Amino acid sequence: MFKYIIVGAGLAGSVMAERIASQLGERVLVVERRRHVGGNCYDEVDDNGILVHRYGPHILHTDSEEVFHYLSGFSEWREYQHRVLGFIDGAKVPLPFNLNSLRMLLPQSLAERLEEKLVGRYGFGARVPILELRESGDPDIEFLADYVYRKVFLNYTRKQWGLKPEEMDPEVTGRVPVVLSRDDRYFTDRYQAVPRDGYTAMVERMLDHPCIKLMLNTSHHEVLELRDGQIHFMGSEFRGKVIFTGKIDELFGYRYGELPYRSLDLQFESADTEWFQEVATVNYPNDYDFTRITEFKHLHPTDSRRTTLLREYPCTHIDGENEACYPVFTDETRAKYERYLELAREFEDLILVGRLAEYRYYDMDDIVLRALQVFEERIL
Ligand SMILES: Cc1cc2nc3c(=O)[nH]c(=O)nc-3n(C[C@H](O)[C@H](O)[C@H](O)COP(=O)(O)OP(=O)(O)OC[C@H]3O[C@@H](n4cnc5c(N)ncnc54)[C@H](O)[C@@H]3O)c2cc1C
């Protein structure tokens, strides 16, 4: 019999399963609703022969040696430095906004004056939030802060979160930085890569252990039931531990209502051209209804005469219709989540881990680290 049941074969569930199987030699059942493992990192080769990320582009970037070395046990890497351009006033400029973007968008004399003032005041290499630039007392720098806010950030955030301008908190939106360097990379973490054979292959290797049994196309409802402080598996009381990585509100039958998420309408397109754009991702803050276009060939170079693109249209999450992507944090939703946590505490052997169960945005490295930590603290 199984001592552990894990719901969800994304990164959180797969790291937990791998640790339990390889470190403890205990039997684990992994139940996954989708037809595949990997969760939101799932990738597959499409009709153009190109490896595409079906739930949106995923780039591993981390400063954590522990995470990178752990994942290296299951994958080789393709070193990759992510670059993002923003389509602004008809030009494609590096994002985050830096000294190169400044020179590409503003008249030369103004750009030179600004660069001198910014570097003189904040130092070369600094990342200065626009909120701070706005309070500089220098009209040129305040102009720049307002320019970056309007052209790079305002409309992108409106699209992404479906907000009206008056609903946007200037304290939050003012955190966007201007980077005082010529480093055009989107991330500056120590490790940046994509798995050489893809995330799906990496997760498959994690789960490839004689102690792990995987059930795809199976929702937790079909095998588990939580009632009266006890967990039941296939109708009988279950005395092991359940690690749940799905939505916490769903686990408790939406008793206090749904926890809201933003979602994405992901439109893949095959283009009859070798390359479509200069870098993997181009953001469109002000034009069109989509937020960005990703061209997957930049992540996984392929000898194909065609190319595959992905346009992301943000939308409201509707359960059963689209994916829950980004939690919508308000005081009310945090309070609702706390009420669900109270329900979970009634079950001593229930462990919640993962972006959906914890109602948090985690990057991949965060969730790997979190799962390794939960294993140490709650299982070992
Ligand atoms: C558009 C987008 C882009 C991203 N880009 C990046 C990036 O570039 N870099 C980065 O580091 N991170 C990125 N992330 C974050 C990354 O996707 C997450 O860190 C990661 O997916 C979290 O893993 P998880 O296991 O917690 O959740 P998931 O990947 O969502 O896995 C949960 C799994 O549980 C299954 N499941 C849920 N409920 C049930 C149930 N009731 N029964 C059975 N199975 C169930 C689901 O089908 C899923 O497979 C991005 C996220 C999004 C939305």
UniProtKB/TrEMBL annotation:
Key words, A-Z: FAD, Flavoprotein, Isomerase
NCBIfam families: UDP-GALP_mutase
Protein name: UDP-galactopyranose mutase
Organism per entry: Methanothermobacter thermautotrophicus (strain ATCC 29096 / DSM 1053 / JCM 10044 / NBRC 100330 / Delta H)
UDP-galactopyranose mutase C-terminal domain ranges (all copies): 151-361
Highest taxon of the lineage: Archaea
Pfam families listed in its UniProt record: GLF, NAD_binding_8
InterPro entries in UniProt: UDP-GALP_mutase, UDP-GalPyranose_mutase_C
Cofactor(s) needed: FAD
GO cellular component term, pick one: cytosol
Similarity comment: Belongs to the UDP-galactopyranose/dTDP-fucopyranose mutase family.
Record bears the keyword Isomerase: yes
Signal peptide feature range: none
